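Sample 3 of the quickstart, ligand magnesium ion:
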Amino acid sequence: MDLRQPPPNLPQAWGRNKGILQEARFIFQSMTDKKTSASQKAPKKSPSGDGLDTPIQFCPGVGPMRASILGRLGVETVRDLFWHIPRYYEDFHNLSKISQLRPGQVVTVLGNAVSVQERIPQNRNKVRHILQTVIEDETGAMLAVWFNQSYLADKIRVGTRLLLHGRTDLYDRMMQMSSPKHRIVDDDDDSTQGVEPIYPLSEGLTQGALRKILRSALDRFGGACQEFLPVGILEFHQFPLRLEAFRILHFPKHGEGAPTDRCEQEMELLKDGEAGFAQTLAAGDPHSLWEKARKRLVFEEFFIHQFLLRRYHGQVKKQIGVSHPHPAPDPWAQRIEIIEDGPSAWPALFIESLPFQLTADQKKVCREIEEDLFSPAPMNRLLQGDVGSGKTVVSLYAMTIAAAGGRQAALMVPTEILAQQHADTIRRLTHCLPGVRTVQLAGCAAAERRQALESIANGSAQFVVGTHALFQEKVEFARLGLAVVDEQHKFGVEQRQRLIEKGIHPDLLVATATPIPRTLSLTLFGDMDISTIVSLPPNRPSLITRWTQWDKEEKVWGFVDGEIAKGHQVYVVCPIIEPSENAPHLPSTEEAFERLSQTFLPHRRVEILHGRHSAQVKGDLMERMRAGAVDVVVATTVIEVGVDLPNATVMVILGAERFGLAQLHQLRGRVGRGCSKSYCVLVTPSRIPPYAQQRMKIMEKTRDGFVIAEEDLKLRGPGEQFGIRQSGHLKFHLADPLRDIHLLREAHEAAAKLYQDDPGLDRPGSERLKEEMLNVPSRLEFRRPS
Ligand code: ADP
Ligand code: MG
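Result:
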C-alpha cells in the first residue's frame, strides 16, 4: 500500500480538528481496517505467530482468564505487554540478614512467618488489635508486630513469605520491627535473587505471575522486537537496541542503575499506585544503562508521535479546501479609499471602524491567518493568546474575510453566555458593514431559532454564533467556509470535528486562552500552525491579586463596597451552587448571595448566577450587568471563560483552594479589562494543603498566563495540565514531555527529516517503523471518532 496516498475510505474532512493524535489514529485506523478486511479473505493469523501483535492469550503462561485480567490493564497484545513498564524496582541485593540486625536501623528483610499470633488487648483504649509474628530467614529470627491492622490476620499466615521494611528495635531482647511496611512475596515469585520489577497490577494477578509472563514473552517474541530508530540517534546517545532496552526496563541487572533506592518514600509507593511512578523512575542515575534504555523507549514514543503529526499535517496541506478571495481594498493599506461598499470591502471597513487600534501582535496574527485563508489548503491554526489579549477581534477579522468572499463563518463557544456576548460583539463591530447578518443558536426562542436555521441553510446569514447547538443535525450551512472554535480546550475533539463536517474542508481556527507552554504545544499540536498574541492591548490597568483567609472576610466586603461606591462592578465566585452536606465548609453561591445581600451589602444590588439558570435568565443578567444595573454577581464558574465586562474591577474567589491554576487565571481574567485598576481576592481557609498554598502564591506573583502555565505544569504534571487529559489527547507509556523535552525536540527534528526523505516509509529499512506506526492505535489511548 502506498502510504503517501490518503486511504480511499477516509471520510471527508477527516478529523482535521481533532486531537492531532486522534487524527493520526484515524488515518492509521482506516488503514488497519483495510488490513483487516483483506485478512478476512486470507486465513487468520495463526495464534502461534511470533509478531508483537500476537494477542496476549497466545503468550506462554496466559490463558483466557489471565488474558482478561491483563486486558483490564490495557494489555491486549504482546506489544502492550512489552510496554507495561514497571512502576519501580526492588533490589534484593540490599537485603539485610536477620542475624546482623542492630537496633535503630532502617532495613529490609526477607523471611518466612513461622508463627502468627493475634491478640485483643483487655484494656481496649487505643490498641484494639495486635498481630505478632516471628519471621525467620536462614540466619535467624525476629519479631514483627502490627497494631490495629486486623485485616492483616487474613493475609499473613504461618509460612507466608514476607518482605519487611522498617526500623528495628529491641523488645524482650529480641530484634523487632513495629508496624513495618510489608509485601507478601508469592510462591510464583522467582524474584528474590536480584533487582525485581514491581508492576501495576490488577485483581487476580500477582507480581510473580506477571514477571514470569514477561520473561517468557521476551524470550518467545523478542525476535520480533527489531530496532528501527535512525542509527545516528542510537549512536549519538549510546542507546541500547530496542529489545535490549525492553529487557533492561523489565529485568535490570544489579549495577545497571535501575532506580531502586530503598527509602521510606519508595515503600510508600506500594500504596500510592500510579502517582508514584514518575517520581521513582526519575530517581535513576542519568548515565546508567537503565536510564539509556528508558530514553531509548521514550525517544521511540516521541518519534512515532512526531512522525504521525508531521504526516497528518502533510496530508491536510494536500487537501483542497476553500480559497477565499483577497478583499478589496486591502484592509492593511496605508490609506483606504472605499469606493464601493460591497462585500469585498467589508474587511477594510471592519478594521477602519474598530473603536481601537489593533496591536502589532494582533495585526501580525491577522496577516498569518489571512494567508491561510487565501490559500486553497485548509487552514489548521491555533490562535493562542493570554486572557484579555484580544483574540475575539482577530477571529472576527478572519470571519469577515470569509464573508467577503461569499462564505459563511461559524463561531462556536462553550457557553450560552459567551454565545450571547459574542453575537452582541459581532453585531456591534459589524453594524457598519451593509448587508451583514449575524444569527445565534443559543438562548433564543423557538421562532427565532427556526428563522436562524433557515437563514443558515439559505446562506443569508454570514455569521453564525452558537454553542454545541451548532453541530447538531438540524443545522445545515449553505456555504460554510470558516469554522472558529473559541476556548477550544472546552470542547472535545469530536465536537470540533462535527462542526467542521458541516462544510467541505472549511478552514479551521481554534482559539485558546489557556496558554500552552511551548514544550507542550509542540507535543500536542505538533505541526499545527500556531499564531500567538504575546502582548496585551495597551493601557491595561494594573491588576493586584491578594490571598487572604476567611477571618478577614469582613474586610474583603468592606473593600468591595468601596469599589462599588466608585461605580465599579464585582464578581464573587464560589465553587458550588448550594450548600453541600458532603462538603460543609465549601462556600456556595446561595449562601454567599444571602450573606452579601442581607448582612454585608444589603444596600447594593446583588444578583446570583449559576449553571441551573436558563439561558434567558443568564442573558438578561449579563445585559443588566453591562447596563450597570447590577453591582455584584455571585456566580459559579459559569463566568469562567470569555466574559468581557470592562467595568468589572473586582473578582473575589471564595474557596480559591478548590480551583486549579488554569481556572484561577481564567477567572481573574474577567477583570482588568477596562481602564480602572483592578483586584482579585483569593479567599481560603487558614489551613490549606501545601500545593494549594503554592497556587495562591503563584497567583499573587504573576499575571502572565505563560508563566502560570509553566508553573502549573510543574505542580501537576503534564497530563493534568490545563485540562489536556480531558480533551482526549495522548497518553505515553513512558515519555514525559516536560522531563524529556530535549528528546522531544530531537525526535521532532528526526521525524521531520524522515518525513522529508521517505514520507510513505517505503524505503528499505523503514519496514519496522511502518509496522509500528500501523499499531499506534493500540498503543495510544484515544476514543474512536464517531
Ligand atoms: P480574549 O483574548 O480573552 O478573548 P477579548 O477578545 O475578549 O480577549 O478582548 C478583551 C478586551 O480587550 C475586549 O474588551 C476588547 O474589546 C478589547 N481589545 C481588544 N483588542 C484591543 C486593542 N487593540 N486595543 C484596545 N482594546 C482592545
Ligand atoms: Mg475570548
